[in-house]
Amino acid sequence: MNMRLTRSRPRCAAFTLTEVLLVVALVAILATLALPAYLRATKKAQAVEAVSNLHQIRQAQIQQRAQEGRFVEALESLQQSAILDIALSSPHFDYTLEGVGTDQFLAVATSKSMWGESFQVAMDQSGRLTYTWPTTGAGGSGSIVRPPTTRGSRPPTGASGGGGG
Hints:
By secondary structure, the protein is of the alpha+beta class. It is built from two helices and five strands; from the N terminus they run ααβββββ.
């Protein structure tokens, strides 16, 4: 009897090209759906950071006025007098003062954006917040004005004010 030994190749457990492409396509679709939500969440978190820092700037200005009788025109002055302890240029925002007078000031946080679409959050001496962002189209920029809230009261549910220029 003639016996010939045949070597059988073990079958490798592997994915076919079709299966791999299907998984890649599904991951791409999920990433496409998740990216806008992620970007919105990070922009909201950055806006919260800006509002917190603007509140600190406002408190420092109020303290400065109580001590010296006037608001300062440069944030660096508040830092030098050790009243303000925030970075004037964070990874997400640059902070400035505008329209400083004897009874008024506007603290502005301008976002730094990798994609060139920055927005601004501003707080005046009374604590009123204004959010300004660029819009595409003929409308120019848009803004939402939120009046200050007192402790224990709830902020308004709808946006009021509005016309940016």
